Amino acid sequence: MELSREQRALLVTERRATLATIAGDGHPRLVPCCFAIGFEGGDLVIDTPVDDKPKAVADPMRLARVRDIRRDPRVTLLVDRWDEDWSRLAWVRVEGTARLLIPWSPRDASAHAAAVEELRSRYPQYREHRLEMQPVIRISVERMTGWDAFDHEAQREPIAAAAAVSDDDDRSLVDTLDPDRV
C-alpha cells in the first residue's frame, strides 16, 4: 500500500470522497461522502457518517449504502482531485471492509464517539448534526492505490506547498501515513 507523500497529502487534505458499495444485484452503488482518517489498534481506518442531510428514508438502517454494507461489507472509497490544469490531477483509491459503528451498542460506543469527534473537528457543519444518534461507517483499510500527474519535482511543488500551509494536524497526519503503516 505504498503511496507517495503527495498522495498521502491528497488523502488527508481533500474534503470529499465517493463511497462505492455493492448493491444486492451486484452493481456498484456510489455516493459522495465526507470522511475522517483514524487508527484502530494501529491499523488505518476511515470513517464516514450517516448525517442529517435529507435522505430518501427516515431510518438510517434502511439507507441503500447501509443495507449494502450489512449484506456485503466490501467497499471502495475514491478520493480525487480534479483540476482544469491536468498536471494537478490525482486520486487515491481505498479498498476495505466496512462495518457500522452503532452509537447505542456498548461494543461501538467509544469508537463511535471518537469518530464523531473527529468528523466534527474536520467538518464544522457537523456540529449542527445529530451524529451521536446516527451510525458511522468505519472502513478498515486493506489496500490503497493512487495515481497523480506529477512526473517531476517541479510539478510536485504545488501539492507540497498546499500540504505545508495546511494546519499542523494535517501535516502530522500526512507524515503518520508513512508507507510502512498504510
What does this structure look like?
With 182 residues, the protein is an alpha+beta fold. 29% of the residues lie in helices and 31% in strands. It has 5 helices and 7 strands, in the order H-E-E-E-E-H-E-E-H-E-H-H. Strands 2-1-5-6-7-4-3 form a 7-stranded antiparallel sheet. A hairpin with an 8-residue loop joins strand 5 and strand 6. Helix 1 packs parallel to helix 4 and helix 1 packs across helix 5. The chain is globular. The N and C termini lie close together (5 Å).
Oligomer: single chain
Described by the principal axes of the CA atoms, the overall outline is globular
What structural category arises from helix and sheet content? alpha+beta
User: What's the β-strand tally?
Assistant: 7
Topology as H/E string? HEEEEHEEHEHH
Q: Separation of termini?
A: 5 Å
Unreliable parts: 152-159
Task: Summarize it.
This protein has 182 residues and is an alpha+beta fold. It has helices spanning 5-13, 64-71, 109-122, 153-165, 168-176; strands spanning 17-22, 28-33, 36-40, 43-49, 74-81, 90-101, 136-148. The chain is globular.
